[in-house]
Amino acid sequence: MKALLTDSPVSYYQQLYTILRQELARGTWKPGERMPSEAELITIYGVSRITVRQAFELLVNDGLVYRRRGSGTYVTIPLIEHGLNRIISFTDDMQRRGLHPDTRLIAAKLEPASADVARRLDIAPGEELAVLERLRLADGLPMSVERSHLVHRLCPGVLEGDYVQTPLHIALLEVYGIRLARAQQAIHAVAADKTRASLLSVAVAAPLFFIERVSFRQGGIPVEFLQIYQRGDRYVLYNELRA
Questions:
Q1: Are residue 198 and residue 99 in the same domain, yes or no?
Q2: What tens digit of pLDDT does each residue of 15-56 get?
């Protein structure tokens, strides 16, 4: 890294800001990676803590880094542009963007359909559902929490699959011959409750996108009711309109 110029009319914090910005542009630190700590930068450059904080503040204002309380300063992961006109799995979507997808299983269980879920899936209340809840991550950063409700009689034993490694839609096609042909969804803005805030590493009441989606197989038969809570600071919802 470059040294600060002691005889420059440019302030130390602006010089440090420029150096760190150049290193970010070179890819010295990858998206989601922790930056050197304040103490480390103080040692490297021989500057005061306030100088480092002012430089970081400029980087935060530029949207290049973000702070996690008690953890440090991290390189911003680019916002995910989420198209609204195509069915695509989280795994496929992240891989296409050059990000490493990961999944953590929260729950997998059978439960009776509530009246609301039964209405959405066009089944009788109380019919058995396979419920799968997962935390989705990209390059180690929590992105969304998904809760899938599947009509169990259409895919018996579906919970025995490994959905940490295998996308659900692949298993539905390869094991049960179910191809998701279309979907209907509604999108709401909600505030993160304590549980989802903890899972997504955001503050309680942080804004989330809440997506409710019903997916249909060929013939118009509902297969899955999916609820997705997406971090509002990581996604941009996108749709193309035609006149």
A1: yes
A2: 899 999 998 888 888 887 889 999 999 999 889 999 999 999
Closest CA to 205 of 195, 214, 217, 215: 195
pLDDT at 160 over 60: yes
Could you tell me if 148 and 231 lie in one domain? yes
Whether 58 and 127 share a structural domain = no
- Note the residue count of the chain: 243
Give the per-residue pLDDT at 84: 59
Task: Read off the CATH number of the domain in which 18 is found.
Answer: 1.10.10.10
User: DSSP readout, 198-218?
Assistant: HHHT--TT-EEEEEEEEEEET
Cβ-based neighbour number of residue 67 at 10 Å: 14
| Angle ∠(12,18,19) on CA atoms, nearest 5 | 90
Please give the average per-residue pLDDT across 149-178, as a whole number: 91
DSSP 146-162: EEEEEEGGGSTTGGGS-
Q: Are residues 32 and 115 in the same domain?
A: no
Q: Who wins on pLDDT, 79 or 122? A: 122
Regarding whether 210 and 229 lie in a shared domain, the answer is yes
